[in-house]
Design a protein that fits this description.
By secondary structure, the chain is of the alpha+beta class. Helices cover 49% and strands 13% of the residues. The chain has a three-stranded mixed beta sheet. 11% of the residues are buried.
Length: 104
Amino acid sequence: HDITAAGFAPSPNTRLIVAGGGSVNNTLLTLISNVFGMDVYRASSGNAAARGGALLAYAGVNGVNKMEELVSRHEFELVSKTDLKLYETYCGMRQIMSTYRNNV
């Protein structure tokens, strides 16, 4: 399923922050970065998923509209930078698959 059809539209300032078991797999993170067209960051401290949930709850209760206000207080390491040429290749593949699905 094309993520843009679900209303997700990455912008140049959009980034993915990963946590949990999959966040240690650099090959997977590189693939994710290139498919979604966003740099991937990993939280540099443990319990990042729990912390992220707590930050979202805090944002909801306190009316914080910009996630950047919350994540700026925490350290993240860049683990995969987007290869724009590969991103464009994946975009073309998504268009082909979408056409194929619509014609089957």
